[in-house]
Amino acid sequence: MRAAQALRALCISRLPRPVSDIFTSKPTSYLRAPHFQTTPYSTSSPQQKLAADMHPHIKRSTAFKSLDDADINHFKSFLEPSQVITDQSEVQPYNTDWMKKYRGQTVVVLRPKTTEEVQKIVRYCNEKKLAVCPQGGNTGLVGGSVPVFDEVVISLTLMNQVRSLDEVSGAFVADAGLVLETADNYLAERGFIFPLDLGAKGTATIGGNVATNAGGLRLLRYGSLHGTVLGLEVVLPDGTLFSNLSTLRKDNTGYDLKQLFIGAEGTLGIITGVSIMAPRRPNAVNVAVLALDSFELVQESFARAKRDLGEILSAFEFWDQAAAEVVHKYVSHVKNPFMEGDRPAPAFGVLIETSGSVKEHDDEKLSRFLESLMEDSIVTDGVVADSETQAKALWGVRESITEGLSRAGAAYKYDISMPVPKLYSAVEDMRERLASKGFFEQGRVARVVGFGHLGDGNLHLNIGGPQYDKEVAEAIEPYVFQWLKELDGSISAEHGLGLHKAEHLHYSKPDRMISIMKQIKDLFDPNGIMNPYKYLPKS
Amino acid sequence: MSSLKVLVPIKRVIDYTVKIRVLPGGKGVDTNVKHAMNPFDEIAIEAAVQLKEAKKASEVIAVSVGGAKSVETLRTALAMGADKAVHVETDADVQPLEVAKLLRAVADKEQPQVVILGKQAIDDDSAQTGQMLAGLLGWSQATFASKIEVEGDSLKVTREIDGGLETVRAKVPAVLTTDLRLNTPRFATLPNIMKAKKKPLAKLTPKDLGVDITPRLEILEVAEPPKRSGGRKVESVDDLIDKLKNEAKVI
Q1: Which reaction(s) are listed as its catalytic activity (chain A) (predicted)?
Q2: Topology of domain A162-277, per CATH?
Q3: What is the CATH number of domain A2-30+282-402?
Q4: Is the pLDDT of residue A8 over 80?
């Protein structure tokens, strides 16, 4: 008994408002206001603000019922005890996003194991008008995966089975809660590759990837999920099943409804199954990292890569000096090959990956390409991985940037796309703007960092500071969105809208389109229970 | 003692990250997968190049026994800083004793003062070649090196052993084998990769060296380790304690 209590005490963190405030009925056995202690092991800082407090204009909808014991008992009538989490210390991680920026206030997490269980949950919630928040790996960066108020969290992580793999066509069908890396490992053993890769692969689930239309590191080669997803199984807001787990590559019979769910961020239904086209795993993969002096040269190297590497090019990423320095300083296990002996990072770093079927052919092509870059002084230096271990180490330099920024302090993250020539001017412009307001001098902004998928015209603009600073945030937004509007760029290339950008949608989409989106939302979800307060603007 | 000539034997092996598949028939593994330089050999090349950069060595020669594709591995060694490469070409399956005999013959030709090998190859894990070579040459040996210092006409080597660390002084000429903590091998940089193409690469055969490479050992069987039996989840700490006590019987 004592061991159990000690274990629990390790995980408890403090909420600023008593849980009992949220309920209309007197709390009983499941929902008694817990005793709180803060310990160094809390999963979120005791000072972390609630998402609701950070966005005071969002009010909990009075249309939604408040959870009570009868509801919990109903869930327990068809779910096992371990599938219904009400212990506040265990619920906490589901309330907080990866960046520790958004904190919700749910009191219950449901973890269905089958599609039928998801349907039962959703049907009940729709009848009772209980708001729900579907959640996969909870690695989203725009606050879309955690509740704002007391939305019931429906975690898909226990639904993680592979359903089938057609080894001739490559059609791969699996549960939505399957972790991306696990899916890829399963496919790797059979000679296939998952057509999506991103830094969060060890935690993100494929259902969440599809719901957010994740882009990632290999979009350049395999295309977007809108193209690679063959079919979906979705539980609609009324609990009925949209069952379209097709494995057909071509099927032009009617409106392609699955496209609506891809990128809908859980607002039109809960994805429970994914059917996707898995390409054959390449036999020969090469990774090279280059050092360049200017963004113009980065663009030149990209143009040449497309021309000289052509069909074998599978990734083209870039980062600036500030990004490399953050990794060097805060992620000690990752070594930047150009920063040996504490040399300063080059102005720009580029990672090129090639994937093909014949090693000798690819080696020859890559080696000629890299030599031409050196001879024409496009790059000042470069390294090529000689083994898989080195390849992973080089990818680490790019993939650790996000982690490094999180460790360095607070990060204001913007994921934007615009015409490639203008890409880096977003960084330079923001640096100048924040410098002119004295934020660097005052130590309120430590760095402005740019990196991303150059091949897709997608920049991750990050501003880093010691802690979240309202004035700094106001200097950044809506300035950056306005800047993008003038270039017809996107305020969210791949991270999505979630809570962060819902109100800013008009910077990238005209009103008429937004009103059609709202009609579609109302069609699927008349009670509005499915992941409310996000994605579409309120007004 | 500033003109040490260093010979570094290297081996092309299946890449350390590849999942090994035993072939049906149980006589070997699927070799149609990614290959790379044996990681301990990379460490050996790095150690030799560092000695050259510290002006303790004058020349680093990389040598490899293997088929045509071993040339790629030798080019990597050249790109890391080796000055020249020797390829002893054979498609036959060579075993540690035969390799040691071939290396002795190469050493007789090249006349190095130090031979640095990886402590073992990650495909057969024999960990014999360095030791046998020292025996055949009659040289001192210091194996599992995690630190190498040149002191006059000797090498002061810190060895990783079961109990901790042991420091020995080996008089030159000496054979060393490298352990993991000796260094972190550098990446091959583009300028060096380009220079490597112009460095000399000599080809020899076992016949040229007068060595009989007939294997003395026969592989009887290759099998995967027994599959792990599944773990189980428990619902509470009490359940865990109960199972550890009564089922696993470990407490």
Answers
A1: (R)-lactate + 2 Fe(III)-[cytochrome c] = 2 Fe(II)-[cytochrome c] + pyruvate + 2 H(+); (R)-malate + A = oxaloacetate + AH2
A2: 3.30.465
A3: 3.30.70.2190
A4: no
Please write the tens of the pLDDT for every residue from A346-380: 999 999 999 999 988 999 999 999 999 999 999 99
The whole-angstrom separation of Cα A222 and Cα A212 is 17
Give yes or no for B162 touching A (CB within 8 A).
no
- For the record, the structure tokens of A196 come out as 């999506």
- In three-state secondary structure terms, A129 is coil
Structural element, H or E, at residue B246: helix B237-246
Strands B164-171 and B154-161 come out as antiparallel
Asked whether the beta carbons of residue B37 and residue A386 sit closer than 8 angstroms, the reply is: yes
A441: helix, strand or coil: coil
The confidence score (pLDDT) of residue B248 equals 82
Distance, CA of A245 to CA of A251 (rounded, Å): 12
Report the CATH fold assignment for A51-155: 3.30.43
Whether the upstream peptide bond of residue A279 has omega within 30° of 0, thus cis, is no
3-state secondary structure A280-327: ECCCEEEEEEEEECCHHHHHHHHHHHHHHCHHHEEEEEEEEHHHHHHH
CB pairs under 8 A between A and B: 72
Question: If you write DSSP's letter for every residue of B87-153 in order, what string do you get?
Answer: EEE--S---HHHHHHHHHHHHHHH--SEEEEES--TTT----HHHHHHHHHT-EEEEEEEEEEEETT
- Using N-to-C axis directions, what is the helix angle for A425-436 and A479-486, rounded to 10°? 140
- Selected residue of B71, B187, B232, B238 to mutate for chain A interface (largest A Cβ count, 10 A): B187
Q: What does the pLDDT look like over A76-108, one tens digit per residue? A: 999 999 999 999 999 999 999 988 889 999 999
A383–B18 CB contact, under 8 Å: no
The whole-number pLDDT of residue B49 equals 97
Using one digit for the tens of pLDDT, what is the confidence trace for B117-126?
999 999 999 9
CA-CA distances (angstroms) from residue A482 to A473, A507, B39? 14, 7, 52
Yes or no: say if A498 and A214 are a contact pair by the CB < 8 Å rule. Answer: no
**According to CATH, where is 3.30.70.2190 located in chain A?**
2-30+282-402
- pLDDT, tens digit, 9 for 90 and up, residues A299-330: 999 999 999 999 999 999 999 999 999 999 99
Q: Which residue has the higher pLDDT, B250 or A205?
A: A205
Give which of B142, B141, B147 is closest to B182, Cα–Cα.
B147
Chain-chain contact of A388 with B190 (C-beta, under 8 angstroms): no
H/E run at residue A233: strand A229-235
What's the fold here for domain A409-507?
Alpha-Beta Plaits (3.30.70)
CATH 3.30.43.10 in chain A is located at 51-155
Domain architecture of chain B: domains with CATH: 4-246 (3.40.50.620)
